[in-house]
Design goal:
mainly alpha; 192 residues; 8 helices
Length: 192
């Protein structure tokens, strides 16, 4: 009968530890993959983007649904305040846009939005938004930002048109709102 090597117990412990660690790494990788898939789906819903490459880049950039929601709502508020006051129809359009993205009145983001509707945005917030937009365009590229630009500017245009014109006739976007829209488009990599 052969005696067990004095290293046998240590070898077994080493192997068990190694394979246990490998299994844990695989489990961690699976959890991260599922977490990224959940984040990717949440971002897709919030941004209304279906392009996998763009969504992967947003996940890699660690962009949260909350920051994306704020990113999309600030231009709506800025356009609404462009004429120095917010019409009730503009307020309703902005809140409806937030609710269409899944925001509820009990959410912190929704309450923040209501605060923004109560008084004009600060210059610091406007600059922060433009800086973030420029960074996003640099990180993702102008082509990948096209869907985001279309969504953000489309909603901002709806807000501008919601209170414009005289008795519903004429140009519904004021010159000041048009200027703000052009600045937003430029920050998002559009315009010339």
């Amino acid at each position: 009968m052969m005696m067990a090597s004095p290293l046998e117990d240590r070898r077994r412990a080493l192997e068990e530890s190694f394979f246990s660690k490998k299994n844990q790494q695989l489990l961690d990788a699976l959890r991260e993959e599922l977490s990224q898939a959940d984040r990717k789906q949440a971002l897709s819903t919030a941004a209304q983007i279906d392009d996998d490459r763009t969504l992967d880049l947003l996940v890699q950039a660690d962009i949260s649904v909350e920051s994306l929601l704020a990113f999309k709502l600030v231009p709506l508020v800025e356009v609404a305040w462009a004429d120095a006051s917010i019409a009730q129809s503009e307020r309703e359009a902005i809140l409806a846009a937030a609710e269409s993205k899944g925001s509820r009145p009990s959410d912190v983001a929704y309450q923040l939005l209501q605060n923004w509707l109560a008084e004009p945005l600060t210059e610091d917030l406007k600059l922060a938004w433009r800086s973030y937009a420029n960074g996003l365009v640099e990180y993702l590229g102008a082509d990948e930002c096209a869907a985001i630009r279309t969504e953000v500017l489309g909603k901002a245009r709806e807000v501008a048109q919601s209170a414009g014109g005289i008795l519903g006739i004429g140009n519904k976007i004021s010159p000041v709102e048009a200027r703000v829209m052009a600045e937003l488009e430029e920050a998002l990599g559009g315009g010339d």
